[in-house]
Amino acid sequence: MAEPPAPYDVAVVGAGVVGSAVARELAGHELSVALLDARDDVGEGTSKANTALLHTGFDATPGTLESRLVRRGYALLSAYAEATGIPVERTGALLVAWTDEELAALPRLHDKAVANGYEHCAPLTAGEVYAQVPALGPGALGGLAVPGESVICSWTTALALATEARARGAAVLLGHRVEAAEPGPAATTLRTTAGDVAARWVVNAAGLAADTVDGLFGHGRFTVTPRRGELLVYDKLARPLAPRIVLPVPTARGKGVLISPTVYGNVMLGPTAEDVADRGDTATTAAGYDFLLARGRRLMPRLLAEEVTAAYAGLRAAIDRDDYLIEADPERRYLLAGGIRSTGLSASLAIAEHVRDLLGAAGLGLVPRTRLPAPPRMPNLGESAPRPYRDEELIARDGAYGRVVCFCERVTEGEIRDALRSPLPPAGPDGLRRRTRAMNGRCQGFSCAGEVEALLEAGP
């Protein structure tokens, strides 16, 4: 009988942006690492459907772990995006006050930003607000400029981190839903839908399922409440209306409804914030649509005259705490990274550093590898840098980049081929969308789905 495989040093449960960042960080050390996810692709859960903002952390609660990690993560992810080609646009943001109460809150938000180490906010008069975003609806009383806020591609971020984790030697085990955990004297056996995975240490970065996995290790310290956020995506012709991210004055339930440009050239309106019972309920609703249109009518009436090209919903893992919940359990050789809210994208690389340090303090040996592969260079999905269909030299070398398949998004046959040949290829059409933008445009695949899916079925 064959001997069972040696246990991994660390198994990371959850291949969203946080879990992928943790796996990448740990795989930079002399450790065997496995990155597990219940779904068939990385970044398939909360990470794929968020507002995709790169936050400075200006409005976090000072002194919290979230505040510290978002501030550090902003710097780390900005540098990582530069190194890997993750699309980022430095649009800046405006907090807009529409009532006297909101106007009175702006100085406190400025002071909070300073307490968080961000000293670049600036108060704006109503005239200055309209000078920066002329399409805003009437009635703005003033604002606060946050020049460091940016938009980023969350899809490419999760994929880059998981791709680099794999290049550093981590095993990426998709379709492995954890159903039981059996700690032993030397390793924990994770019973998954695709077989057993043994590891000396387990990191729980399971997002919406983090409390469930936490319970498998004997804890009952928090409950995840799925918070559904619906968003509307407007056509690229609307982009001149939104040169900046337009933020509301935040409330206890979150940052509220915003208007934001995207790196893909669209404009986004949302999200809603509705607590739901079903952890898979990403349906869009008539009530959500009506709510967003009502908010949009006040914020930017001209936007509502533009075409909506997509409506979607994401789920955030809300918990009954006001901070991240990242704690190590040395006795069980287990670490929880839970309660990671919408700021988790910005904080992901700093969360990974924090997890690394907690594991080291709890007894995991950490010896940095002396030779690491270069970070991956990711395909550009953004509009602020040249896309392949416009690159004459690239097309001259390889004509596949000159054959456009998806005309709404200008996606070429070469880009689809590259995605299928990549280290973590898509498992289906949705994964291909997130790697290339194919079928994400005005027609939502009506014109190109047949040809795109034929290329997908034919393989690399």
Question: Could you characterize the architecture of this molecule?
Answer:
The protein is globular, with a radius of gyration of 22 Å. It folds into 3 domains: 222 residues, FAD/NAD(P)-binding domain, CATH 3.50.50; 156 residues, D-Amino Acid Oxidase, Chain A, domain 2; 71 residues, no CATH class. By secondary structure, the protein is α+β, with helices and mostly antiparallel strands. It contains 12 helices and 22 strands. 30% of the residues lie in helices and 23% in strands. It starts with 7 loop residues before the first strand and ends with a helix. A hairpin with a 4-residue loop joins strand 19 and strand 20. The model has no long low-confidence stretch (mean pLDDT 94). The strands form 5 sheets. Strands 1, 2, 9, 10, 11, 12, 19 and 20 form an 8-stranded mixed beta sheet that branches. Strands 13, 15, 16, 17 and 18 form a 5-stranded antiparallel beta sheet that branches. It has a 4-stranded mixed beta sheet with strand order 6-7-5-14.
Please outline what is shown here.
Helices cover 30% and strands 23% of the residues. With 460 residues, it is α+β, with helices and mostly antiparallel strands.
Number of domains: 3
Number of helices: 12
Average of per-residue pLDDT values: 94
The CATH architecture name of the largest domain reads: 3-Layer(bba) Sandwich
Query: What percent of residues are in strands?
Result: 15-25%
The CATH fourth-level homologous superfamily of the largest domain: FAD/NAD(P)-binding domain
Helix content: 25-40%
> Per the principal axes of the C-alpha atoms, what is the gross shape?
globular
Structural class by secondary-structure content: alpha+beta
CATH fold node name of the largest domain: FAD/NAD(P)-binding domain
